[in-house]
Amino acid sequence: MMAYWLFKSEPDVFSFDDLISKGEKGEEWDGVRNYQARNNMRAMQIGERGFFYHSNIGKEVVGICEVVALAHPDSSTEDPRWECVDIKAVARVKSPVSLDDAKAEERLSKMVLVNNSRLSVQPVADDEWDVILQLAGGTEKL
């Protein structure tokens, strides 16, 4: 069964446009140093989708990405504890969905983003995925 995810990145460090520029090969989602976030990446399957969320600046879901490589050693460290997946951009949301929008939506009250906004890679329930896409007004092809 396919799962959904949310990937958080500071847009001044690595933005959704940066991911788009990487094309079909995508980019390693490196630099994660949180065990829960790493374990989430270990659980991912190729083809699963995630929201791309701009943290700190904007605090909003801006796009959709797809897992293109299973968890593997993180090339940004020699420490064998850290692994990551590779993702590619697949679509932009028509209208970004802010953290405030998510918090104001009763149907998202149990969403990890709403309750643990610090976790950098987090699961998204099927119904939460649908609600965020509704709030965004759908997606636009890249």
UniProtKB/TrEMBL annotation:
<dbReference type="Pfam" id="PF01878">
    <property type="entry name" value="EVE"/>
</dbReference>
<dbReference type="InterPro" id="IPR015947">
    <property type="entry name" value="PUA-like_sf"/>
</dbReference>
<dbReference type="InterPro" id="IPR002740">
    <property type="entry name" value="EVE_domain"/>
</dbReference>
<dbReference type="InterPro" id="IPR047197">
    <property type="entry name" value="THYN1-like_EVE"/>
</dbReference>
<protein>
    <submittedName>
        <fullName>EVE domain-containing protein</fullName>
    </submittedName>
</protein>
<dbReference type="InterPro" id="IPR052181">
    <property type="entry name" value="5hmC_binding"/>
</dbReference>
<feature type="domain" description="EVE">
    <location>
        <begin position="3"/>
        <end position="135"/>
    </location>
</feature>
